[in-house]
What does this fold into?
Amino acid sequence: MLSYLQVGLYAFLFATSIIIAIGPQNIFIIKQSIYQKKPYLAAFICASCDFSLITLGVYILSSYINDSLLSMLKWIGILFLIIYAITNIKEAINPKKNVKIESNKEEKKSFSAKNTIRLSFAFSLLNPHVYIDTVLILGSLGAKHEGYERLFFIIGASFASYLWFFLNAYIGTKMIYIFSKPAVSRSFDILVSLIMLAMAYTIYKL
It folds into this structure.
């Protein structure tokens, strides 16, 4: 039993070292939190996608991901990040940004769970880095184990994702007051756009 726990702890620490970085999923969840658009649902979906990809990587996919597939995912991811960056720029110059976040209840209501689910899956599955981290790196490491050790590896690695994404959502909710001023909110949208464009360029250089 001790060896199983050691495998789980190793997977948790290794996965944590990979996912604690500024990535599209993290920025997306923090933004959902700041604008009170179902951040914990977004965190749950992003983490669950990681869990599914790690599991598939450990048992099946790690040996099937090839350069052609990664290249296709790369260009899809770049396109998605550019579109999202443009969307944020439009939000930043939107006159409605003069309305404070707390009082903008209409916008929060219009942003349905369906929109959150759609964007969460997009940020999780259209990002080539996700497949490199979960399927290739963690999947390959987990595949080296046998029997129940694989299961504990998956649990440990997946727990890191759930913990990190829910932490992002929680931190974002604590920053609502800071971003309640329209000027700060607008600046944040522009910053998100720049980060997304930088990430698109980083993916292009892969």
The first helix runs from residue 2 to 19.
